Amino acid sequence: MTPKILHNGKSYILYDADRLGNAPDLSFERNELVARGCILGAAEGRGTTLFIQHDGQDIALRHYHRGGFVSRFLADEYFWTGLARTRAWKEWYLLASLHEMGLPVPEPVAARVNQQGLVYRADIMTLRIPQAQPVSQTLMRQSLTEKTWQSIGACIRRFHEQGVYHADLNANNILLDNEQQVFIIDFDRGEIRKPATGWQQANIARLLRSLNKIKKNSETFYFSESDWRNLLAGYRG
């Protein structure tokens, strides 16, 4: 992986030169991507993630959106404190480190930051994980096996053993592919910190709240207490 930066006025693009041969031709703009016929699909979350194709590669493009009360006033704007402190830059480099550590995360491709005075907007691109869907969507159609729940728990343990903190570990950010391999995505505000029981258990508790909330609000959602026990069994090893 070879990080390089394109700089044009108040716009900055960070990209992997080993992955992108024609980075100057890269577009983050939806209208332009539509005109080029590059959009393959989309997934809804806090914002919309677009699945696009560039240089024959399937890529996930995510625009940074705020959550919570502040989003009423600053939907996608963040206070500028320097390029290295932007959420896109930090997540890109974190993903690059996690990928080099061999952890199951999407490989970072590019990130863009547009500064406008005291604020900025940002986007990030990662390679799309083939044939993978969020656990939340899968559970609306079918149950998971005991082995798969244990695999999810074991995957989370791998991250925690390496001191990887995920700021929003929920059922939408855990993916399963056709082989039931587990991946974790969306490391916005994530970081590598000293392993500690407190934040690790808070991560686990957040995931449980996510699963219970989706179950409460869904007509069909295949999640039970025994499923959670299987996940914890996998986490504990």
Describe the structure.
This protein is an alpha+beta fold. The protein contains 6 helices and 13 strands. The strands form 3 sheets. Strands 1, 2, 3, 4, 5, 6, 7 and 8 form an 8-stranded antiparallel beta sheet that branches. Strands 9-11-12 form a 3-stranded antiparallel beta sheet. A hairpin with a 3-residue loop joins β3 and β4. α4 (146-161) crosses α6. The longest helix has 20 residues, at 197-216. It is globular, with a radius of gyration of 18 Å. The relative contact order is 0.13.
Question: TL;DR of this structure?
Answer:
With 237 residues, this protein is of the alpha+beta class. The protein has helices at residues 30-36, 87-100, 135-138, 146-161, 197-216, 225-236; strands at residues 3-8, 11-16, 39-44, 48-54, 57-63, 78-79, 108-116, 119-127, 133-134, 164-165, 174-176, 182-184, 191-192.
